[in-house]
């Protein structure tokens, strides 16, 4: 029983600090860089945050910008986000 408690106490902080700590942010980033997500799907996903035509257009332009990138660039972007999530600056949040 003590061994289980020690393992849980060790694993819990590692679990809590994995990723950004905000699943919604991670989902937005993943949808932004995913070539399988269309512009309209992306806009629908973020419709609560884009309430004017200008904001919807900005979302479309941001998504199109990412769709224009190569798969290698998108992969590197995803890796950069993981590095940022696990940096000591983000770990305190």
Could you write a compact summary of the structure shown?
The protein is mainly α.
Give the helix level as a range of percent.
over 70%
Tell me the β content: under 5%
Order of helices and strands: HHHHHH
Radius of gyration: 17 Å
Number of helices: 6
Q: What kind of sheet is the major sheet?
A: none
Uncertain parts:
1-17
Q: Please identify the structural class as seen in this structure.
A: mainly alpha
| Counted beta strands | 0
General shape: globular
Mean of residue pLDDT?
79
- Distance separating the two termini: 31 Å
Model description:
By secondary structure, the protein is mostly helical. It is 72% helix and 0% strand. It is built from 6 helices and no strands. Helix 3 crosses helix 4. The N terminus is likely disordered.
Summarize the topology.
Elements: H1 2-16, H2 23-33, H3 39-45, H4 53-67, H5 71-85, H6 88-91
Helix pairs in contact: 3-4
Key descriptive features of the protein:
single chain; 93 residues; mainly alpha; 6 helices; 72% helix; globular; disordered N terminus
